[in-house]
Fold each of these.
Amino acid sequence: MFLKSLTGRFLLLTIIFVMLAEVLIFVPSVARFRVDYLQERLERSQIASLALLATPNDMVEPELEAELLDNAGVLNIVLRRDEMRELILSQPMPAMVDRDYDLRMAGPLTLINDTFATLMGDGDRVIRVIGAPVKGAGLLIEIALYERPLRAAIVDYGLRILTLSAVISVLTASLLFFAVRRFVVSPITRLVNNIKAYEKAPEDGRRLIKPKAGVTELFDAETALRSMQKQLTQSLRQKERLAALGSAVSKISHDLRNILTTAQLLADRMETSDDPRVQKSAPKLVNSISRAVNLCESTLGYGKVGETVPMITEFSMKHLLNDIVESELLAVNDTPVSITSQVEGDVRLAADKEQIYRVMSNIVRNARQVLEARPEGGQISLYGCEQSDGWLMSVRDNGPGLPMRAQDNLFEAFKGSVRKGGSGLGLAISAELVQGHGGTLKVSQTGEAGTEFQVWLPKSS
Ligand SMILES: Nc1ncnc2c1ncn2[C@@H]1O[C@H](COP(=O)(O)OP(=O)(O)OP(=O)(O)O)[C@@H](O)[C@H]1O
Ligand SMILES: [Mg+2]
């Protein structure tokens, strides 16, 4: 769990990275250590061999020779002073020389290789090392020595470096751990807590985050969050106000409709008045009041749409479209408007019958109203069919096409109407009802040749 947290990951990764870096330093420095060790042996041997210079025939007593070799820590020494003269300190060799190492021309890779060979070996080897004498004291110096002390010194040195690496990596990781906690984790936790608190009451303006992170990126995140919260809170408040307004409008529409219905009844009676002027204006009054009643009813209907969940039943598409044709034909005035319907086969539709009836009759009514408004009238044809994944119904007329102004906001409440006395709710309500079924309502064609609306309902929504 801890290793999955940001701080845990940082801790682990830092330890790994520092150890990796240390290993990269470790290899060359151990090789360097070996060279230094051998170089020092060569120098000590050189000093020991110089003791021979004090003697007349470059020879010393065997005891002194053994002591000199012992002090230098080697088995024998050959110092070539020039082409002619060699100073030699030697004792009987315990074993054959296993390997020669010439330090004068060894490159870094050879040195690293040789170090590993020493470490991998068992230390029982006798090695010969060749180097250049210091201070130009000769042409070359050559020593033989046991490899074991060299190997032990390298192991010891390596272990010390590894321990130091471990200490450094743990120390660095701990420092980073606290830094990450302080500069990254705390601000993120604050951000998350704020989001949680805000989520509980987004309309409460006091819960907006106050940016104060020290790290620029987190500060930017806090600022962006604050601006998003601000917008959200504002639009929530606006929505609340609109909802309140909407319910007030519904109540007003409701009461107004009742008042107007009474007025409608009274206006009806005026038509029987003896006064010809009253008689003449009565139909206009009735018309105006009817329009007002319609507006109230549509507004009330729109307010309810959001709550209506479709009650799915199975019914015949043919019957539904026929019913609509019949009731619309009843409403046609003296203009020559024909309405026909055609359904391919005996299609059974699974949907909310009442709602789909409202959708289709809204569309047909619009077409009828448009055709009635012109003296030549027109034709409306309804068509329905079943498809593999849904049902398609269309209403086509040969009217003048949708006015530009209506096209822009056709399916938006109160906005799409260009008809005198229209409220602009019919298509908005229809679209919502179709969407409630998971279907689509669209204008598939409009222009001088007429308009076609298509309703598509999916088989499983
Ligand atoms: N078949 C059509 N041909 C031409 N114009 C149309 C057609 N159907 C709709 N319209 C236009 O689209 C507008 C919007 O229609 P919608 O049904 O949404 O509102 P409305 O009919 O004006 O009012 P409401 O239906 O709420 O009483 C109409 O005013 C009309 O101008
Ligand atoms: Mg309409």
Amino acid sequence: MTETTELINQLDELERSLYVFHHLSSQVELDAMTAAPIDSAAGRSVVTEYLSKERYAAFASEKTGKLLSDLVERKAELPEKTARQAEVLKRDYDRMKAVPQEEYVQYDILVSEAQNVWLKAKLNNDYASFSPYLKKIVESQLRFIEYWDPDHKQKPYDVLLNEYEYGLTADMLDKFFDEVKQTVVPLVHAITEKGWQPDTEFLNKYAPLEKQRELSDYLMDVLTLDRAHCSIAETEHPFTLEFNKDDVRISTHYHTDSVMSSFYSVMHEGGHALYELHTGDELRFTSLASGASSGIHESISRFFENIIGRSKGFCDFILPKMNELFPGQFESVTEKAFYQAVNTARPSLIRTEADELTYCLHIMLRYEMEKALINREISVDDLPRIWNEKMKEYLGVDVPNDTKGVLQDMHWGGGMFGYFPTYALGNAYGAQMCERMKRDVDVERCCAEGDLKPVVSWLTDHVFRYGCLLDPIPLFNQYCGAEFTAKPYCRYLKEKYSEIYGL
Ligand SMILES: [Zn+2]
């Protein structure tokens, strides 16, 4: 056996063990979110801590470091896939190795405690009890930035962005959000001034659970999700969890007084699931076998949820099915009224309930705040005040309390600084991708006929099958044939909402 072959064998072995850790921790997470009784966290956290330590020991070892360096050195001799595996793993290795093990474990414990404190603080509108934890998390993040970029080659916040969207910078985001702000803020204000809103009352009539479950099954079929490889559960918060490309789990939450809530959750999580189910076969059980980045992933889920699921064609297509499943509820509703109702844009307090138009403003505010926090321009104690000011400025709404304001999301308490922007980027990536897709696929016909096969097949060829073979920005440039700009997204929102609201 040549030395290179031997190294490749060792790499396969490493990938296997990483897959096992991924599978086991996903299993624990899935159980926590689905079947486990409410007060059962203590036992699971013992397992999580053990797995976290063992994974660290296996991955951040001298042996792994040497293996990855040797492979990266021989990059030219390696098959393309292997070279990329080594590159991606080396990047993770360097990041993980840079943080001393004891600090890594302590941070895990801090974050898991902070999650519990955050949840109680949110329930009791008690920001003061959460802020000491948030301060410690921010301090940890600032230390991590030093570890990860000791020579200060990047701006501090960019170092965090790179964890979720490799290659993304605050400069790119500033430009993006500037353009979004200029388009969306006036649109939102114009809608508010106009004072007219579509009738949405019929959407909140009683919709029986068993019929909503039937609707989910139907939507999963329309999305072409293979049920032999993708199951659906019911949880408090909808999610997608992938074990591997043959085993993807999604979940939804049913509200009997809001049938479209689960409808769009299934479309959204279904989009995430399609991506995972269609990564290249040859990538199976490797670190390349998943979506390219948070932003690209979100672009796919938002594409199915909004660009497809809220399009005129798809609304017309789905209305007869809604009539069939929920007799009486949609009987006197016209196609136009249904389309307008599911596309209502109304400034609101809660990000996860925000509509397609105002959603990005919720993200913009979080982006501006977390960037300022990491740049030490503001402090944790300033967050509630700044939050409320920005909500007023961008969305025109008054925040009544921190529960409905700064405490609403779990991300910061989970140490996920740099993650929020990927949500907004996802929306914008999707709009530009759709413009490109329309050159090859009659997307409007697909929506109107509920035939999404050509769409999924385009996405498989251009996006899904690559997994992590390319970094998000080069991948995006490749399938769009152009660099990312906010323009298609702004154009899409402006055209759609001007038409709906007669602006
Ligand atoms: Zn998502």
